[in-house]
Amino acid sequence: MGFKILEYLQPFCSFLPEVSKPERKIQFREKVLWTAITLFIFLVCCQIPLFGIMSSESADPFYWLRVIMASNRGTLMELGISPIVTSGLIMQLLAGTKIIEVGDSVKDRALFNGAQKLFGMLITVCQAIVYVVTGMYGEPSDLGMGICLLIIIQLLCAGLIVLLLDELLQKGYGLGSGISLFIATNICETIVWKAFSPATINTGKGTEFEGAVIALFHLLATRTDKVRGLREAFYRQNLPNLMNLMATVAVFLIVIYFQGFRVDLPIKSARYRGQYSSYPIKLFYTSNIPIILQSALVSNIYFLSQILSSKFAGNVFVNLIGTWLRVDINGIR
């Protein structure tokens, strides 16, 4: 038998801001407008650096997870959608295993959503504190208590903004969900930047452009051996190349092709004899949910490992989860 813990959380949930349901049907143009506003706010937060941090140039253990978690290091979107996904995962797990009781009434669903939001804010606070304490933005002793508290408040406010933006779209003001929108935006931004980035990098063989497409024209124009320049544009190491871009486009087209596949399950009516219908199930029925959950699980394992390693470095059991080595980069730890 589950616990009716949601009723005890109701007084705390009332303090959280909430997006009210629309009182009328939202037109398609308005949905597009609200979706664009949501996307604009998210992109702006991805570019606003956290005030007070000393440096974010050290090694980033979450580099490969940031695309899926829609996060951007050193900015207000440092945590991305990780608190939302983690809170949703844990709450759904507790409800599915009947550890907590969730009824089918409107009140129970509202309490469940409020508890999920409250839990998401608690996870945001915990992650923000750990990020600051473990020295991701500089040694806490060098930053000072006031700056550390200010960084935590910034991450907390950014987490609340993400929760409200997702709730805004989920309640029918926009198109789709905030989580999917933020992930798609982050992925598209990364692809476009890696393809057309004008940033230059000295690779030891001369200055090259980071963007794969721009690098193609640059290498063909500067290399006397055009065949070698073309080969380098397709297969160069440590920088985006045309093979990476072509593989990304190929995967994108394959996913679109298989997205249209579905299986029609025949359904027979028990009330009306002889009446048949079908229920379509898409081949990609789960969509990107497994990838999001796997990324959230891995990021939380990294998160836990970083906490334990900072306090119990050298412990055998802690090292089973992961080992962390702090190195100096340009004189910065």
What does this structure look like?
This protein has about 325 residues and is mostly helical. It has helices spanning about 5-15, 30-45, 80-95, 105-135, 140-145, 145-170, 180-195, 210-220, 225-235, 240-260, 290-310, 315-320, and strands at about 200, 205-210, 260-270, 275-280. The strands form two sheets. It has a two-stranded antiparallel sheet with strand order 1-2. Strands 3-4 form a two-stranded antiparallel ribbon. Helix 2 (about 30-45) packs antiparallel against helix 6 (about 145-170) and helix 4 (about 105-135) packs antiparallel against helix 6 (about 145-170). The longest helix has 28 residues, at about 105-135. The radius of gyration is 24 Å and the shape is globular. The chain starts with 5 loop residues before the first helix and ends in a 12-residue tail after the last helix. About 20% of the residues are buried. The model is unreliable at about 330-333 (pLDDT under 50).
- What spatial form do the alpha-carbon principal axes imply? globular
Helix content: 55-70%
**Cα radius of gyration in angstroms:** 24 Å
Return the structural class.
Answer: mainly alpha
The proportion of residues in beta strands is: 5-15%
How would you write the strand order of the largest sheet?
A: 1-2
Order of helices and strands: HHHHHHHEEHHHEEHH
Low-pLDDT runs of 5+ residues are 329-333
The largest sheet is: 2 strands, antiparallel
Terminal-residue CA separation:
51 Å
Specify the number of helices.
Answer: 12
- Strand runs, count: 4
